[in-house]
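Dear H.,

Thanks for agreeing to be a second pair of eyes. The structure we're designing against is below in token form, covering all 203 positions.
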């Protein structure tokens, strides 16, 4: 059993293991935005020449696309593992997926922030791919909330709206959470999970 298949491993976050060019692109996109970062700067920060960078990624757009694919794959993988390890009730499944979303947006906040804000910089095909991946995450949560309403675990008369509100709340954590802030990770999960349960009318 590998470390990423151990029970509860979806809660564990070490240092990011992005390839050098993607790590450099992430840092510069976070600092200056996609439009403000140049290929020359990205190459320099990655310790590559510009031709060397182009050998792996033919354009700045290719860097953004590759970066968002890695980010969304990690997010979806963690959410799926959290769901698979949760209990059988919609309440347990909801708590697990919400916790996974919250932890991702705390511990991968720079990645989550860049993926979300730089959707505007993606070319149409790349944007459609990103939106499709984002929608997979939303549908996972939607299905749990609808099941909870059917089972009587949740009482929201607007399950899809409540589900979107919960997802938006989790995503927003990336824009303000700081490790040295008032709330520690476990405290934030506890507090925001309670808010999320309230949004869906958990009983």
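And this is the sequence the design step returned. I haven't edited it by hand at all.
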């Amino acid at each position: 059993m590998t470390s990423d298949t151990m029970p509860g491993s979806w809660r564990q976050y070490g240092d990011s293991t992005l390839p050098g060019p993607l790590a450099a692109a992430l840092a510069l996109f976070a600092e200056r935005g996609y439009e403000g970062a140049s290929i020359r700067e990205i190459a320099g920060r990655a310790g590559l020449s510009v031709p060397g960078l182009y050998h792996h990624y033919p354009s700045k757009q290719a860097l953004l696309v590759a970066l968002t694919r890695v980010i969304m794959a990690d997010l979806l993988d963690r959410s799926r593992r959290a769901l698979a390890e949760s209990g059988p009730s919609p309440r347990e499944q909801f708590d697990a997926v919400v916790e996974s979303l919250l932890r991702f947006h705390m511990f991968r906040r720079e990645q989550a922030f860049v993926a979300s804000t730089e959707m505007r910089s993606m070319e149409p095909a790349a944007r459609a791919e990103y939106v499709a991946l984002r929608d997979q995450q939303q549908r996972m949560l939607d299905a749990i909330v609808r099941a909870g309403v059917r089972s009587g675990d949740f009482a929201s008369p607007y399950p899809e709206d409540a589900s979107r509100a919960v997802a938006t709340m989790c995503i927003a954590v990336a824009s303000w959470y700081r490790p040295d802030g008032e709330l520690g990770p476990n405290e934030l999960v506890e507090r925001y999970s309670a808010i999320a349960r309230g949004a869906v009318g958990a009983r």
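Two observations from my side: The longest helix spans residues 124-151. The mean pLDDT is 95.

Warmly,
E.
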